[in-house]
Amino acid sequence: MGDSKYAKESLTITTKVVLPHETNTLGKLFGGALLAWMDEIAAVSAHRHSKQVVVTVSVNHVSFYVPIDLGEIVTLEAKVSRAFGSSMEVIIDVSIEDRKTGEKKESNQAIYTFVAVDKSGSTVKVPAIIPETEEEKSRYDAALRRRQLSLILGGKIKPSEATELKALFE
Ligand SMILES: CC(C)(COP(=O)(O)OP(=O)(O)OC[C@H]1O[C@@H](n2cnc3c(N)ncnc32)[C@H](O)[C@@H]1OP(=O)(O)O)[C@@H](O)C(=O)NCCC(=O)NCCS
Question: What are the backbone dihedrals phi and psi of residue 151, each rounded to the nearest 5 degrees, phi first?
Fold first, then answer.
């Protein structure tokens, strides 16, 4: 497939335990601590795909479905959903683990965009993504619309240029 790589090649997984300095007075994980964990793992995933230095250009979406308690075991999984020119969308799925049964429950999701840069900070082209599973394919398709929305909000394109995003409302 030429200069393309499978989405699974960027899969990055890490497990954390929530420590006292990462919690608020109710003993729940700070949102900011989770954002930092997600940024770090997503950057590693974008690096695995591009093999370049990557910088966060946009945090497109973050959901906090359930509070995460002190001592909880938290697993973060990040994978590049789509690459464009120099930019890559990375989706991070976060789950918490029942300490008795080991059963995992989805707690958060976030979507970050990274750009590959060289030593002088100039953008570098990255390989395209080949999605394989149904989930990878649907995330790949939706990534184009999310990119257009993010670029509109970032003042980079006009709404009239967001063809695929506009088609959702027609
Ligand atoms: C990221 C950076 C290198 C981009 O430089 P730039 O001159 O704006 O470059 P461009 O406008 O060509 O954008 C580069 C890519 O980012 C994408 N991009 C820019 N803004 C975006 C946004 N808000 N959402 C999604 N993608 C965005 C562009 O579409 C382009 O993607 P493509 O190459 O795949 O088509 C530059 O803005 C930068 O260094 N930002 C700071 C990054 C940083 O330090 N992050 C950590 C924050 S503490």
Answer: -70, -35
